[in-house]
Amino acid sequence: MTLTNNRTWALEAPGGRPAPSPEALRRTMAGFPTGIAVVAAHVEGRVVGMPANSLVSVSLDPPLVSISFARTSTTWPALRRAPHWGISILEEGQEPVLQRLRRSADERFDDIDLDIGDDGQVLLQGSLATLTGTRYAEVDAGDHVLTLLDVRQLDRGTASRPLVFFDSTIHQLAH
Which residue in 75, 115, 111, 114 sits closest to 96, CA to CA? Predict the structure, then answer.
């Protein structure tokens, strides 16, 4: 890979070889287990948000995390208007909640127990961990937008384990 400017990597391997296909990258990265988070906010009188497995800790000082959003997402433009976001990391007992979150955007949060904060951040009750934050920066990242969030509050329980996304399916950690 070569750096073509301060923010974009060219997808060409050394020696002029073509870059791996999107399908090959997706298949390969499916072998890397991740947790499942839900990012949500109260925007213009309704809850908007979506599941994400791209949550990453970026910096401890200042406390920053990142989430990637596909440019084709219909939820991202609405969520982007929210000044404060909630991030809920799902625990192993929340697989039914994740199934409900796969519904259309208008029905996505129906019948899900939520806490809506004074600043509009939305958290799912019963989650393994929660964070609230504000947008810190956005980075053009090909067909996604990498969004950095300034973490304002956080909480984590220790009595349960996370849901895990691996090989394009949901798993639980063995006890």
Answer: 111
Tokens of 14: 């050394």
8 Å CB contact between 64 and 14 = no
pLDDT in tens, 138-165: 999 999 999 999 999 999 988 788 888 8
Q: SS in 3 state form for the chain? A: CEECCCCCEECECHHHCECCCHHHHHHHHCCCCEECEEEEEEECCEEEEEEECCCEEEEECCEEEEEEEECCCCCHHHHHCCCCEEEEECEHHHHHHHHHCCCCCCCCCCCCCEEECCCCEEEECCCCEEEEEEEEEEEEECCEEEEEEEEEEEEECCCCCEEEEECCEEEECCC
pTM to 2 decimals?
0.85
